[in-house]
Amino acid sequence: MARVKQSKSPAPKKKPAVPVAAKVKPVLKPRSQRLRDKGRAAISLIRKRRATLADDFLDVGEALRTLKGEGMFEALGRADFDDVCARDLDLAESTADAMIALSERIERELEKELGRDRSSALLALVDAIPEDDLPMNLLDATIQLPTGGKLVVRGAPASEVREAARSFRLVRGARQGKRSRGFTTTPEEKRRFTAVEKRWRARRDLAAVVHTRLVASRREHGAEVDVRLPLEVWERIELPGLPKR
Predict the structure, then answer these.
(1) Quick one: the chain helix, strand, coil %, rounded to 5?
(2) One domain, residues 158 and 218
(3) In this structure, are strands 211-215 and 150-152 parallel, antiparallel, or unpaired?
(4) Looking at the predicted structure, is the pLDDT value of residue 45 above 60?
(5) Stronger pLDDT, 66 or 5, i.e. the higher one
(6) What are φ and ψ of residue 225, in 5° steps?
(7) In terms of pTM, does the model score above 0.85?
(8) Residue 110 is part of which domain span?
């Protein structure tokens, strides 16, 4: 009797081994954690630059923009951007906004004209000038220095701008070393002043010629604002309506 040969079924092909590293999916941090890490890195950079008056201040503007980004102050456990400036940077919000605005303008249109070194020095100067004395348009301003001299910002070399920033910082350091006496403006008064000042800064035709300063007052109405502006602008200002009694 003839034997029938049984055909062997082909052996199943072995699947190529998957490397162990490829099997493990990367663990992504939650968005809030990523924002918090990014924010803390920005705060660390700003503190370092301000402490050493580093030669490169341009990245401070970028770091401030990061801190003002959407969801950042919540991730850092702060009430708002002003709270971040006050608690983490010891920096007035109006000064931070001025640095952001200048850094954005430098990136947009002035980097070639000013050069990186001078641009960086200008940002350092914005950071150093007291909040109440900061002009609306720094590039066209003449700054009264603590040493008694003056700095005509437009055309001044980077070395002079940086030296001016140092002179303001020395005075600020001396004042911080002394115990504060008397009284000052309240956070609410500063907030109201900054809100109105931003509207003036938005008017490019006025930013270079109008200068304002918030001043503490013991009068019943509270803080006052010192304003310097051209006569022709003064003539066009409309008086507010009388308060209702």
Answers:
(1) 55, 5, 40
(2) no
(3) unpaired
(4) yes
(5) 66
(6) -125, 120
(7) no
(8) 30-173
